[in-house]
What we know:
Elements: H1 7-17, H2 20-44, H3 62-94, H4 98-126
Helix pairs in contact: 2-3, 2-4, 3-4
Amino acid sequence: MTWSDSGLNREATRVDRLPRYGIAVLVSFIWHFAAFAAVWLNTLVDREDTSCDDAPSFCFTAKDGAELLLMAGGVFLVSSMVVSLMTAAWLSRRIRSAVLAGTVAALVAGVVVIAILIALFLANILL
């Protein structure tokens, strides 16, 4: 039995047929879901909150802060996922490994979204 007759060659061609872009996007989304899960788990932690009974008008507890972080982090991660769709298309053509392309796409997308937010913040302050 030669190498070409074995089942290993057929498996290798099946893996080669998988689109690198799809795997890169999947890996990028897995990184985003892992980050979202970390932010979400932060809201489930019991905290020793101070009582808001003595607050005259407004009380911001640690639980409220964690929920605000969940909302802001969710918006950031969704916009980062949209940007990672575009960067994964570009990177999957240039990087041979789809897993590495997806990881780099998630990292680049996060940096791009943070840069846009900083630019908008600075433009708001300077204007």
